[in-house]
Write a structure and sequence with these properties.
45% of the residues lie in helices and 13% in strands. With 322 residues, the chain is of the alpha/beta class. It has one domain: Rossmann fold. The protein has a four-stranded parallel β-sheet with strand order 3-4-5-10, with helices on both faces. β1, α2 and β2 form a beta-alpha-beta unit. The radius of gyration is 19 Å and the shape is globular. The mean pLDDT is 95.
Length: 322
């Protein structure tokens, strides 16, 4: 929506949207953009699509992006996140195209010892769960493939993204909404876990600033950047996120504590965002509490029968993209 709002010509590739509630459908994304519903791992299809699109900039976000799902669908997670990324780069190389490619990985690519250390871009990569490991492996794969094929590739590692219109399973805000809608308790696994929460519009703005700078001065730019809250904005615990969200919604949320040792998740995660501030002059506009409140305001109005597209456009314009 932001790209369309800015007048960009957009060609999207994705799997078909899941479920009746999804932003692709709610916002009418299919109107006004070229869209191909195809698996990123389908090399022949991706090659044809890339040849037709001839992109100037590629923002690669296709992924199996759910940590808990990665335990049950481990092979698919590795296959999608690594081989899907290489299928895209291979299609660009085979078509003799060399746009700037910004591949989105994750804040979970770092070897996390849970000391609370704020990970900088120079820290070691790793991952104990299949999602984190697949994203760390993706970092290594795309950078080495880019060197071999002389492609212009950089990676972005963003903290936990929140915003209205997310309906995925096993994500805290959509899970809260489902609990409110059904009256069933929210199953809270790790109430004291901390994450670098940030609003989707901050993340999108950072990605676009990075992509633009890469397109104009690729050689001088870092080839990986963290995107997250400012260092003076202490990470919120999950139970704090729940309290802020419930207060904005104006409704209490029933909770059931359900620890799950079979699918362990890191309790602490923190990012160092000094480099993105130094190289791009970029900082998030919204602090973490405000990001949660803004997301909650979107859901509250949406559940009150406000038009999803109007809500998204309103938040885009309020952010400063008007």
């Amino acid at each position: 929506m932001v790209l369309r709002h800015l007048g960009a010509k957009v060609h999207g590739i994705s799997l078909p949207p899941e479920g009746p509630e999804n932003l692709f459908t709610l916002l009418g994304i299919q109107n006004g953009v070229t869209s191909d519903l195809v698996d990123i791992r389908n090399r022949a299809a991706i090659k044809k699509i890339v040849a037709a699109a001839k992109p100037d900039i590629v923002i690669h976000m296709a992924a199996q992006a759910l940590v808990r799902k990665s335990f049950t669908d481990a092979y698919e997670t590795f296959d999608t996140n690594i081989m899907g990324s290489l299928a895209l780069l291979d299609a660009l190389s085979e078509n003799k195209l060399n746009p700037v490619v910004l591949a989105i990985t994750s804040d979970k690519v770092y070897r996390n010892d849970e000391t609370g250390h704020a990970f900088a871009e120079t820290d070691g990569l790793g991952g104990d769960d299949p999602y984190s490991a697949s994203k760390a492996a993706c970092e290594i794969a795309v950078h080495s493939f880019a060197k071999a094929k002389h492609l212009l590739v950089a990676t972005a590692r963003a903290g936990n993204v929140v915003g209205g219109g997310d309906f995925a399973q096993d994500r805290i805000l959509p899970d809260i909404i489902r609990a409110l809608q059904t009256g069933q308790p929210l199953k809270l696994r790790n109430p004291d876990a901390t994450r670098p929460w940030q609003h989707v519009l901050d993340v999108v703005t950072g990605y676009l600033a990075y992509a633009q700078k890469l397109a104009t001065d690729f050689e001088s730019m870092p080839k990986a950047l963290n995107f997250g809250p400012d260092t003076d904005d202490d990470n919120l615990r999950v139970n704090e996120v729940l309290d802020i969200f419930a207060t904005e919604m104006g409704r209490p949320v029933p909770v059931e504590l359900t620890p799950d040792a079979s699918k362990p998740e890191k309790a602490r995660l923190n990012l160092d965002t000094a480099l993105v501030s130094k190289t791009l002059g970029f900082q998030n506009k919204y602090r973490q509490r405000d990001a949660i409140r803004l997301a909650a305001a979107w859901y509250r109005q949406y559940l009150g029968n406000h038009d999803a597209r109007a809500l998204v456009l309103g938040q885009i314009e309020a952010y400063g993209w008007g």
